[in-house]
Amino acid sequence: MSRPLILLGVSRSGTTLLRVVLDRSPGIAIPDESFFVPLLARRHGKTVDAKQFLDDIARIPELRDWGVSVASLAPRIRSGMPIAEALAAIYEAYADAAGKPRWGDKTPMYMRHLALLDELFSDAQYVHLIRDGRDAALSFLQMPEGTFTRTWAHPRTPAQFACLWRKEVAEARALGRRVGGTRYHEVRYEALVADPDTTVRGICAFAAIEFEPAMLDYAGAVDVSSKPHQQRLLAPPTTGVRSWRDDMAAADVAAFEAIAGDLLRELEYDVASQRSSGGARPALTRAWYDARLAAWNASASLLQRSPLWSRRHPRLSA
Q1: How far apart are CA 116 and CA 247, in angstroms?
Q2: Residue 318 is assigned to a structural domain of this protein
Q3: What is the 3-state secondary structure (H, E, C) of the chain?
Q4: 66 φ, ψ to 5°?
Q5: How far apart are CA 294 and CA 206, in angstroms?
Q6: Structural domain count, the chain
Q7: Domain enclosing residue 59, as ranges
Q8: CATH number for the domain including 231?
Q9: Rounded distance, CA 72 to CA 84, Å?
Q10: Spacing of C-alpha 103 from chain mean position
Q11: Against a cut of 0.90, is the pTM above it?
């Protein structure tokens, strides 16, 4: 089983840009977002039944979009194999089709499942891309309706996004402290767009994958016709993309910083408000959002484990 490289980052932190760049290396294949790792882990437990696993594979649209079919995957799956190996086999099939020796993943939703990732892929390396949460909030909250399926767990205000950003960034950094510097590498989005050559070379050195200057020549080479929120990939990134100082209302800045100002300061981002992140009200807001997210995850887990999931997700045509 090849060693995975997992890109971590809160939604709208630039992980798609980083995925596109790294995927252009001859040393690694990183597909578009997967979403299915927690799903399949919940449905199959520690080991898999080959027939049931392949039946589930046939119902997952991301795998159809990747070009990974049941027929191509079947020789790699056997009953009784650990779920981690079965999941890795999916990515390895994708990487083999691309003629690359190693695979990676980029799915911001997995920031909610870091313990599961580390349990499944105990030798994985992580690249954590951090963006100023106020800029990420602007980008997320301005995404047009219909860009993705919004659930009641998705943030709808700057304060709610601050809860999510603070929780996910802090938990990913805690993972980094546990696994150490050989497995965790932290990168700032602002550095990626200001000096992509140096930043990407550093990531490649960390991950021991080949760097080529052509990796940075992605602009215009990416098909974003079905993804209007990724239109910026048609041009090189600039540091002027989304500026909370120019575009965020002062009340929204204050609301975000009341929740996550402590982490902004820890990361050495400028903080505009004098209001502390402490106090009962921000703590209650964070607790409320944590409970809301936990309830959503619990309901999703119950659904995915039940026969209802299969009935709601018919087998897909190739």
Answers
A1: 37
A2: no
A3: CCCCEEEECCCCCCHHHHHHHHHCCCCCECCCCCCHHHHHHHHHCCECCHHHHHHHHCCCHHHHHHCCCHHHHHHHCCCCCEHHHHHHHHHHHHHHHCCCCCEEEECHHHHHCHHHHHHHCCCCEEEEEECCHHHHHHHHHCCCCCCCCCCCCCCCCHHHHHHHHHHHHHHHHHHHHHHCCCCEEEEEHHHHHHCHHHHHHHHHHHHCCCCCHHHHCCCCCCCCCCCHHHHHHHCCCCCCCCCHHHHCCHHHHHHHHHHHHHHHHHCCCCCCCCCCCCCHHHHHHHHHHHHHHHHHHHHHHHHHHCCHHHHHCCCCCC
A4: -75, -15
A5: 34
A6: 1
A7: 5-312
A8: 3.40.50.300
A9: 18
A10: 15
A11: yes
8 Å CB contact between 129 and 165: no
Residue 123 lies in a domain: yes
Is residue 239 in some structural domain?
A: yes
Is the residue at 317 inside a domain?
A: no
C-beta separation of 101 from 95 below 8 A: yes
Cross-strand pairs, 104: 5
Q: Is 174 exposed, middle or buried (0-12, 13-18, 19+ CB in 10 A)?
A: exposed
pLDDT digits (tens, 9 = 90+) for 98-146: 999 999 999 999 999 999 999 999 999 999 999 999 999 999 998 876 5
CA quadruple 242, 168, 66, 140: dihedral sign: negative
Tell me the per-residue pLDDT of 68-86, one tens digit each, with 9 for 90 and over: 999 999 999 999 999 999 9
Task: Output the CA–CA distances (angstroms, integers) from residue 267 to 75, 166, 294, in the order listed.
Answer: 47, 11, 26
Mean pLDDT for the stretch of residues 42-65: 97
Contact 257, 166 (CB under 8 A): no
Which one-letter amino acid corresponds to residue 110? Y
Q: For residue 189, with 0-12 CB atoms within 10 Å meaning exposed, 13-18 middle and 19 or more buried, which class applies?
A: buried
Sign (positive or negative) of CA dihedral 33, 35, 40, 46: positive
Backbone angles phi, psi at 161, to 5 degrees: -65, -35
